[in-house]
Structure formats: structure tokens, C-alpha cells
Amino acid sequence: MAFKSPLSTNLLDDLQTALAHGNVARRVDMLRQVTDLFIDHAADYSAAQIAVFDDVFECLIEHLEAETKILLAGRLGPASNAPPRAVRSLAFDDLVEVAAPLLSQSNQLDEHALIENARTKSQGHLMAISTRKTLSGAVTEILVERGNDDVVMSTVNNQGASFSERGYDRLVQRAGSSEGIATCVAMRPSMPRHHMLKLISQASASVRARMAAANPKLAGEINSAVQKATRQAAPATMSEDAAISHELVRLLHKDGRLDENEVAKFAANDKFDEANAAIACLTHVSVSVVEAMMIEASNEGILILSKVANFSWPTVKAVIDMRQRLANQPLSENIADRDTYERLRPSTAQQVLRFHRMQQATADASVA
């Protein structure tokens, strides 16, 4: 079937006939011809003519299979004046493969439509939106709020994305617990300094290490933040009992009698000072470094130290349980921690420990 003019009075009649009596192949062929007709002369069409195309596409889309919708979406996505109702219909399709070309490219989707889509559709839809050439602060707020880590990282890496104050606040929260997001944030040149400092102050040692590795220019800011935190919460003077415990453990190590089993015994008997000193000897760092990592809010420090010392999981769990008992916290199975520990590479643990040791040395010097 050939269409000589988009305003032909027979166009919709021909379409209705094809939909009523034609098979799938005929509908697909009609779609191809209508699409070709639009794409080939899109720049020349008036608003009224585009509205006719919108009517045609609207009728066709309702009867198309997914594979054909995907083809149509791929062709309409880059078109600057694509029929707006057809664009919206495809962009809100539940199938990501259909929606993505429009969500990522079409300028016929305004901010309101993008926000609505981002609030209601899948992570795949959010990922497509995150790749647009430009994104307003209102849209990125939703992407950071609802998106998974991959969506958030894609949004942060998009140099055409803008962020509102609220968006930056939420981004800092997400980055504080995600090394991937924090690394992306560290590489973003437009991140306001006050938000960056907030992120540095709340990030764990491993997150700060990744940020410094990604952007060496941040190393100074990171060290300054750590020094400030250390001055505000300087450790208490070591008690005589703790000093004696540390010395006894050092003697064990010197005699070659200190190993993982001893650490497990210390932990099982809630001997915190002895356990700290033993871990310090086995990981070749100072007790102050171990203590700083052992008292972090999460169990990350314990996992890092244990991986460097090559502890088995039962020993790691014994140390975690000791800390929870001493803090009057209920014991748990620590399934997530075990999964993290099994995935953690020794080389990564060594890198984080070196970074933490450097931070502690700088902080100790500033306090002295």
C-alpha cells in the first residue's frame, strides 16, 4: 500500500480496513510504509500533518506485537518532531526494549512526562532516562531516590545532568554506603564542595580509599576531614591493663605462638584488648589502626583486617560476635557480612588497610 500524502482522505479508511481484515504481516507492512513516509519527510510536515500521523500510529500501536513496537520505537526515538502521542505511548510501554529509545532520546517527552515515568516504571526505564543528553534537577531527584546503584552511577556520570540541593543531599546519602557511587561522585567536577566534604566525613575507610584513588586531588580534603574528626574525638589514654594485655600478645607473637586460633580464643572470651593486639601483630599495623577499624559503625573494618590476616569465616564471626556482645547488641547470622567477606579480594583489603594506616598516621601526627 502506498501513501502519497499524510493528509489523504483515504488514509484512515485504508488503515481501518487493514486492521479489520488484514493479518499481522499486512499490519507490519503498513507500519513500515507509514514510518518511512514520516521519517523521509519529517522536517517538512506541519503540526496538522504530524497530528494525522499520530492518529495513524495510535491505531497501529494498539495492534502491534512487541518486536514490531521495538522497531518503531527505534526509528521514532531520534526524530525531533515525532508524533507526541505515539512517543508517549511507546515510552510508557512496560517492555524496556520498547520504551528505552524514546526515554533516552526523544525531545517530545517533557520534564513532567519523564518524572511520571521515573516514578512509576522499572529500573530499566530509569536507566534509559539517566542517559539523556540533559536532565533537570527535578528528574535526577527521582532517579537518585528510586534508582538502583547502576542507575545512580549512570546519572552521576552524565555530565548533562543537573542536581538540586535535595538531589545532592540524597546522592551523598547513597554514596556514603556505596563505593561505586562514591567513586563516580569523586570524578564529577561540578559536585559542590560542601556536599563533597559531607560525603568524605561520613564515608567508610574503603569508600574514602576508592574516592582518593579515583581523584587524587581529593586526597588533601580526605586527610583534612579525618584529622578534624580525630581531633574532635581523640582516643582516651590507654589503661594499664590494656597496655599489659598488648605486651603479653606481642610476646606471644615474638615467640611464634600467635595465630588465628589465639585470636578466636580471645574473641570467644570477650578479650577485646588482646584480640586487637593480636590482629595488629598478624596484619602488621599498629594497635591504634586496628582499634579505629574495630569501632566503625559497620563490620567493614573487621572484614578488611580479617581478610589481610587470612582468617577463616568462623574466626571472623567470633570477632564480630565479641564486638556485638560488648556493645550489648543481639547476635545475628551475619549472612550479608559473610557474602561480602567471601567476595572481598585480599589485594583490595590490603589497599584499604594501607589507606586507613596512612589516615591514622596523619591524624596521630596532628593530635600530637
Tell me about this structure:
With 368 residues, the chain is mainly α. Among the domains are: 1-109; 240-367, no CATH class. Helices cover 71% and strands 0% of the residues. The protein has helices spanning 11-21, 24-40, 47-61, 66-76, 84-91, 96-105, 111-120, 123-130, 137-146, 149-157, 165-176, 179-187, 193-202, 205-214, 219-232, 240-254, 260-268, 272-283, 287-294, 300-309, 313-326, 335-343, 346-367.
Rg, rounded, reads 30 Å
Strand content: under 5%
By DSSP (H or I, 4+ residues per run), the number of helices equals 23
Structural class by SSE content: mainly alpha
Question: What's the helix-strand series?
Answer: HHHHHHHHHHHHHHHHHHHHHHH
Q: What summary fits the major beta sheet?
A: none
What average pLDDT do the residues reach?
Answer: 83
Helix percentage: over 70%
For this structure, the quaternary state is single chain
Q: What spatial form do the alpha-carbon principal axes imply?
A: elongated
Q: Unreliable stretches, pLDDT < 50, 5 or more residues?
A: 1-5, 229-237
Distance between the termini: 87 Å
Q: How many extended strands?
A: 0
Short description:
The chain is mainly alpha-helical. The protein is built from 23 helices and no strands. Among the domains are: 1-109; 240-367, no CATH class.
Break the fold down into its secondary structure elements and pairings:
Elements: H1 11-21, H2 24-40, H3 47-61, H4 66-76, H5 84-91, H6 96-105, H7 111-120, H8 123-130, H9 137-146, H10 149-157, H11 165-176, H12 179-187, H13 193-202, H14 205-214, H15 219-232, H16 240-254, H17 260-268, H18 272-283, H19 287-294, H20 300-309, H21 313-326, H22 335-343, H23 346-367
